[in-house]
Structure formats: structure tokens, C-alpha cells
Design goal:
The chain is built from two helices and four strands; from the N terminus they run βααβββ. By secondary structure, it is of the alpha+beta class. The model has no long low-confidence stretch (mean pLDDT about 85).
Length: about 110
């Protein structure tokens, strides 16, 4: 099992090229999400996600790097997902509690 640590973009893909829906998707994700949760949320939005391990980019023993491609309105967004390997069975991660006072900030 793997859990999300963080997202990044390849150096050749500028952050301003991400469609607004993609930026909102990334902002709504949280550390600890599973691959299943990430792919499921992308499919719920009608996107066609792709998932491919990139073993040549791994730098830490317990971290695997994946290309998490999202096709959003015809734009392919090549996210890079850093995923931590977790031993055993782990319950699906729940979204963190959000402070209602900050909802108007977004």
C-alpha cells in the first residue's frame, strides 16, 4: 500500500499551465491518500487518469515516484506523485478537518 506524500510538476510543465479544475483537485488532496482514492476522485470528475511508476526518480528507500497524468478538458497535466510505502493494511485516509472561518479564503 502507498500513501500520498506530495505532488510536483516536471520542470518542463509550468504551474500556470494547469487548468483551474486541476489546481482545485490538487488543493483538495491531502497527505495519506491512497492511489485508489486519487484515481477514484479523478474519475469522478470525468477525467481519464493514468498512473505509472518512475523507478529512476526514487531517491528515498520508502518513497516511490509515480507519473499521475490527468487529462482535463483536453489538456494533459503530468503530475508527479511522491508515495510512501506503508506495510500492512491501512484504513483509507479521511480528509483533514477544515476551519470554517477559512472557507472564504478559497
Amino acid at each position: 500500500m502507498h500513501q500520498l506524500v506530495s505532488f510536483s510538476l516536471p520542470p518542463t510543465f509550468p504551474p500556470e499551465a494547469i487548468p483551474a479544475a486541476g489546481a482545485q483537485f490538487v488543493a483538495a488532496c491531502w497527505p495519506g491518500m491512497s492511489r485508489h482514492q486519487l484515481l477514484g476522485r479523478a474519475r469522478q470528475r470525468g477525467w481519464q487518469p493514468s498512473w505509472k511508476r518512475l523507478p529512476h526518480l526514487a531517491t528515498e528507500d520508502d518513497i516511490d515516484i509515480y507519473r499521475f497524468g490527468l487529462t482535463i478538458d483536453g489538456c494533459v497535466v503530468p503530475l508527479i506523485a511522491r508515495m510512501r510505502r506503508v506495510a500492512g493494511v491501512v484504513k483509507p485516509s479521511r480528509p483533514p478537518e477544515r476551519d470554517e472561518r477559512q472557507q472564504t479564503l478559497f
